[in-house]
Design a protein that fits this description.
The protein is built from 14 helices and 15 strands. By secondary structure, it is α/β, with parallel strands linked by helices. The chain folds into three domains: about 110 residues, Rossmann fold, CATH 3.40.50; about 60 residues, ATP-grasp fold, A domain (Dna Ligase, domain 1, 2-Layer Sandwich); about 160 residues, ATP-grasp fold, B domain (D-amino Acid Aminotransferase, Chain A, domain 1, 2-Layer Sandwich), CATH 3.30.470.20. α3 packs antiparallel against α5 and α13 crosses α14. The mean pLDDT is about 95.
Length: about 400
Amino acid sequence: MRTDVFITDGHWRKSLAAVRALGREGLSVTVGESTRIATAVFSRYCRHSVVYPSPLSQPEKFIDALEYELSRHPCRMVLPMEDETTGLVSQHRSRLSKYAYIPVVSHEKYRLASRKDAVLKIAREIGIPVPETWFIDDPSRIDRIKDSLPYPVVIKPRVGSGAVGIVYSNNADELTAHYLNVCRRFPNPLIQERLPQEGPGYGVSLLFDEKGTVKASFVHKRLREYPVTGGASTFRESTRHDEIRDMAVALMKKLEWFGVAMVEFKIDHRDGTPRLMEINPRFWGSLHLSIIAGVNFPCLLYRLSKGETFDPVERYTLGVRCRWMLPGDILHFIYNRRRASLIPDFFNFTDRNTSYDILSLSDPMPVLGRLMTPLTFLYDPDMKRRLKKRKL
């Protein structure tokens, strides 16, 4: 059996977006996951599925299984989707490249882009604004600086994405307790000023070829997110913001990037300055929005795998909206203290300009996969570890 693309991490909505995007182009897609119940596996565009060892608890066995699968079933391209799988594939890139096109940077570059402290320092060196940040190498320093910080502040792991490990502190007493608690799981986290919530967040999605040339770019604006205090976007809109786009390109070029990445910014409400938040050095959760707006990153990567040349894709439809309804936007509504202000628009499910990350009339079965996912937490140790990892 030959497959065109092998996609890892079938549990996640971004993997479903990639499966649909490639499948609708007539490509054969295999989906891998460490459990049999996975959202993307239920898609009509998933031609074949594979259960592999957990990349979290059995990384070497995961790579062995992936190599074995690729050796048995020829594949043109492998798309790792999550942090763990992308990191492992980058680490074993030369080994896996014997069997398929691997659009991932070297492990050294991937690790650098994954480190918030390193990325913030590089950004400052090239003139990209960042929030005021304190890099703590010894927890004992907290007592020396805690009374001089501009509260509220946020504590962030040096490596990670989304809201994992992020804690907010409103005063010096909270900071000491919170910092030591975070430090137990994430050594020497950063302390950063908390930008006013009123400022909108933006994401710049980019694709670079192996020569470091930008082959696609896309900008979206966050409209809602979960957790409400800062996390994955649950509702977002395609837009343009050339200043932010240019800063993201400059940063990734400095890192000599290849493949995809999404760079996050937040507008500082106090002076209107866009400030860099972090890099997601792999596919991002809101991938579906860029695809429906006209920038099909998975298919563009497939074209690169075939050696095709094409002009950079930078034109797309503005004002297109996309929701992560299950369970993201529902959780946003539940935990938003100002939820009344969302009514009645929140319950407008017939807006023709809004699409959904998972819900689809033409491909409805992934909803069942998403609804069945909680069952895996009852019996699958790997899914329990994933859930625990996303909580502090």
